[in-house]
Amino acid sequence: MLFDSQTMRGYCQQYLKLITLEDNVDHYEAGLCSGYIASKIELMSYSQQLCQRDQLNVDQIITHYVDATEQPDKQAAMVVLVQILEQHHGCQ
Fold it and tell me: What is the pLDDT of residues 29-83, one digit of tens each?
């Protein structure tokens, strides 16, 4: 299933609400966000695109993702995520 960046942004906002112990969190959407991010990290690790795997912090990556998708953009969520991972943890 392909997600656009705005859909995934909404899910990831629910995740951030969950980890900051806010009320009225949609646990299903929060789980979709964390699962999606984790699966893409695994794929990039297998293809050896991530050089700093030991320094990965999923919560921080999700925060970067939400910040990066602030502007409405129908780009695929994976494109935005790959850019963030390459910028912070990628091989040069």
Answer: 999 999 988 888 888 777 777 777 777 888 888 898 888 888 766 678 888 888 8
pTM as predicted = 0.77
Which two tokens mark 88? 């912070």
Structure tokens belonging to residue 83: 């850019």
Return the domain boundaries, the chain: 5-89
C-beta contacts of 70-79 below 8 A and 24+ residues apart: 72/6, 73/5, 73/6, 74/4, 74/5, 74/6, 75/4, 75/5, 76/2, 76/3, 76/4, 76/5, 77/2, 77/3, 77/4, 77/5, 77/7, 77/8, 77/36, 78/2, 78/3, 78/40, 79/5
